[in-house]
Amino acid sequence: MTLVEVLTALPLFVLLSGGALFVMQNAVESFHRSEDYVSGAGWSSAERVFAFLETPVKHCGVGLPERWQADLFSPPLPLYSMPAWSLWQKNVSVGDSVDGYGFRSAGAGWGNTLRLVSCMPTGNVVLKELQAEANVPVKSLFSGAVKEENTVDARLSVSWLLFPGTEVPVRIVREAAGESPTVTARVPLAVPWGTPVCRLLAMKVFVKNGTVYVDYHDGSHEQPMFHGVQALGFRLDEERRLLGVKVQFAAGEKALEASRTWKLGL
User: Fold this and answer.
1) How far is CA 105 from CA 40, 94, 102, in A?
2) Lowest mean pLDDT among 144-153, 160-169, 175-184
3) Euclidean distance between CA atoms 153 and 151, whole angstroms
4) In this structure, what DSSP letter does residue 202 have?
5) pLDDT at position 16, please?
6) What phi and psi values does residue 71 have, to the nearest 5 degrees?
7) Which of 61, 78, 92 lies closest to 200, judged by CA?
């Protein structure tokens, strides 16, 4: 190769070398960013938050109307016995609160608090068609006990059952821990045999002092669930039934964020 050819090829070599170095630099930076994400305790907490929320979000609204009047959960009871979630009047809402207090709707924007009414399958089914008139206690028959607690306090989520395919919550009023509890509903109800029996799950999720708290409205009050989380963000697209969740956490001196989006309901 002559000197002229070398000098002619030199600018191209420099250009290609610069491009290769740029690509390598970006790759190294991306690797370090990925390493920051997966190596810290915050990332592990974020993944646990997503795993924790996934099932309740997917079962959100099962056995319930999309919106309801407050007395749907209060047949016929004094005001002080009304469950807290009855006043939410819909199965999912996003808003802002201060450590879980003073909830204010965020509308279509981001909020730091999630309120969700969902269900937990018990693994049991209705063995005999359940028919009930409004506010009239009736004996049920299930394939097994649907709860261990014997409480029938209407203010607690553990006292309520849901049935897929219906839109009427059912309250346990007697023999709560057996296979044949006495139940009642606010409106007339007919549940076919073979229908799965679910327990109502009402939860409020928020962050306080770097820890994710959940209030299940079951008498246990707010419970610390996941540490190492700086902030939570929730956004609800009601038209498309989508819930966006983002988790902010620290990795060393860096503040990082992970996000997920779910379709609400099954």
Assistant:
1) 32, 6, 10
2) 144-153
3) 6
4) E
5) 46
6) -80, 0
7) 61
Q: Which residues contact 92 (CB under 8 A, 6 or more apart)?
A: 60, 61, 114, 115, 116, 117, 236, 243, 264
Task: Compute the average pLDDT of residues 156-169.
Answer: 94
Length of the chain: 266
CA torsion 166-170-175-177 (nearest 10°) is 70
Distance CA 169, CA 163 (A): 8
Q: What is the pLDDT of residue 229?
A: 95
Tokens of 222: 């707010």
- Measure CA 234 to chain center: 10
Nearest alpha-carbon partner for 125 in 145, 149, 151, 98: 145
Contact 119, 62 (CB under 8 A): yes
Distances (CA, A) of 165 to 63, 79, 121, 189, 195: 6, 29, 14, 11, 8
Cβ count near 30 (within 10 Å): 10
Please provide the DSSP assignment of 52-66 as one string.
HHHHHHHTTTTTS-S
> pTM for this structure?
0.82
